[in-house]
Write a structure and sequence with these properties.
Helix content is about 35%, strand content about 15%. With about 210 residues, the chain is an alpha/beta fold. The protein has one domain: Alanine racemase (TIM Barrel, Alpha-Beta Barrel), CATH 3.20.20. Strands 1, 2, 3, 4, 5, 6 and 7 form a seven-stranded parallel sheet that branches. Helix 5 crosses helix 6.
Length: about 210
């Protein structure tokens, strides 16, 4: 039994293999995470990675709980909107964004676009100018930090070629009042599966505070 439902009855009805997600279980865990952040005194915004499960029922639960989504494509953006997640709570990540996808995101006024390069920033700026919008962006900075995890899932070393080199990032956002881009934050991603002890990121904090 799972949340009062016999799993064998589901298997008999739809066949196997099948994947069963429990709405109650998902909501309890989401609320525990939210509460843990609050108890720690952290003002955070939770964004569900749509690539983990893009079923509209799951995404609708995320939206009804008041949380956002992290997307990596225009198709995922469309699904978040169909599921009722507020555009302002959507974060667009990833290295393969097309011009059409960026235009879709800027037109919807999504909450944040994580940019991977100075060239992508120029593209976003041009699209936002044409649309008459202000695009909210973060700089995905490569901190050259070793997460001490498996080599195939580490993303924060300079050798991984993800994000903007740390020493180059500040120059990507000159003070241009007329620029249709608002620097919203700095994004760091050092591994696909790793806790982030302060020792890994502490050396970066003084430089980040000066931006």
């Amino acid at each position: 039994m799972f949340e009062g439902v016999a799993l064998n009855a589901i298997a008999d009805a739809v066949g196997t293999p099948c994947w069963v997600m429990g709405a109650g279980t998902f909501k309890r865990r989401l609320r525990r995470l939210d509460q843990a952040m609050r108890d720690a005194g952290l003002d955070v915004s939770i964004h569900y990675a749509v690539k983990a499960n893009d079923h509209l029922a799951m995404l609708s639960l995320v939206g009804r709980e008041g949380h956002g989504a992290d997307i990596v494509s225009g198709g995922e953006l469309a699904r978040t909107q169909k599921a009722g997640i507020q555009a302002g709570r959507v974060v667009f990540s990833g290295v393969g964004k097309t011009d059409a996808e960026l235009e879709q995101a800027i037109a919807l006024d999504i909450g944040q676009i994580n940019i991977e390069s100075a060239e992508e920033l120029d593209i976003i700026s041009a699209i936002a100018t044409r649309l008459g919008r202000i695009a909210r962006v973060t700089l995905r900075v490569n901190p050259d930090v070793d997460a001490k995890t498996h080599a195939k899932i580490t993303t924060g070393l300079a050798a991984n070629k993800f994000g903007i080199p740390f020493d180059d990032a500040a120059a990507c956002m000159p003070a241009r009042p007329a620029c249709p881009v608002s620097r919203h934050a700095v994004s760091l991603h050092i591994s696909a599966a790793r806790s982030c002890p302060p020792a890994l990121t502490a050396p970066l904090m003084p430089a980040l505070r000066n931006w």
